[in-house]
Amino acid sequence: MQKILLTSLPYFIYFLILSFAGTTWMQELTYLILTDGDFQAAKRSPVLERSPQLELKFAEYDGLDIAESLKRPRLMKTHLYYRMFEETFRRQKPKVIIVMRNLKVGFIYYLPLHLFDPEFLLFLGGLSRTERTRSKP
Question: Is 114 one of the catalytic residues?
Fold first, then answer.
């Protein structure tokens, strides 16, 4: 498993949440707590700008750059596991909110989005793309 090298800053709050486990709900709730319930501020910018995603990087969007430009305390989310971060990150004792959810429930929410994805159907059938290619005559 590849480790993520990240320096924890004392004014960052990290969300480590699996997909479909209440990510947006937790981001919104934490943001409102930090801003003393300022709903107007929450409405002015999308949640991805107020709490960027660490591993997301495309076009002009870079989650880490956006997070560093935010006012303190800064919120940042990731769908990576805590153990994927380097030991140096964990030794700094960052503020981390971990949300756990029954994986079966998350799977039920995930299923309709990927029901017709060929890769996902292969996964459900117990085959990877490589195995399927090898098994063809």
Answer: no
